[in-house]
Amino acid sequence: MDEQREIELAATIAGSGLCSVAKSLRDLQDRHPGRFAPVAELLQLDRLDAPFLARFDRVFNDLNVSDDRMMGLGWPKLIMLCDHITSDNRKQLLETAFRVSAKELDQVLKKQRPDTMPMILYLTDAQYEILERAILDHGGARTRRLGERLGGKEEALTRALSGKAG
N- or C-end of the chain: fewer Cβ atoms within 10 A? Predict the structure, then answer.
């Protein structure tokens, strides 16, 4: 089978459900990264949405959050949670997300978590490009919500430094 046919088949297999598309894009990103962009284009996803969908599946499925539970929260809350949810705070954040409105959840998430420590880095352009590539290669993503800045930096950088796949 030629590559173009495989790409079209992968786009068809992605299905029409959000969780199904996210799962298929993650699998494609992990197994055939060179085919990721053409499939995203066939699905008519913009260049920021496709990596975010793959990251969305990586974050929530790695935390064993069911598709039904994710869809019960709704897309706006899931987008907000993606940059904050971890195995340590999973239960608490999901309970909060179900209990409050999206606007209230945003306010809760904007407060710095007490178990974190901020870090400021002063990087040259070349150093930043290396850091950015490592973050993107290990599950981070550019998010429109953050003005196309990197989201999921902490988890992605930790994976990169520990040698774990994104």
Answer: N
